[in-house]
Amino acid sequence: MSSTTSPTNDEKVIAQLSFLSNAVSSLLGPDLEDDLYNLILSYFENHQSQLGKWEIAWGPAVVQLTTDAYAVNAIYVAHSLDRPSWYVISVAGTNPSSLFDWLVEDLLVREQVPWVYALLSAPEARISLGTAVGLLILQNAKPSGDRPHAGQSLRDFLSGLPAMPIELNLTGHSLGGALAPTLALWLRNIQSLWNPAGNVQISAMPSAGPSAGNSAFSHYSDRTLATTRFVNALDVVPHAWNEHTLGQLKNLYTPSIPEDPLMNSLIEWAMQAAAAGDYLSVQPDSPPIPSQINQGKIDPNAPPFINYFIQLAYQHVEAYMKYFGLSAAEFRPLVELYQNPHVFITPALRLVAQRENQATLPSGPRTIPIAGQPVALPTSPNDPRMAEIVEMVKAELKKSAAPELGSSSEVSSGDFYEDR
Question: Is 0.85 surpassed by the pTM of this model?
Answer without folding.
Answer: yes
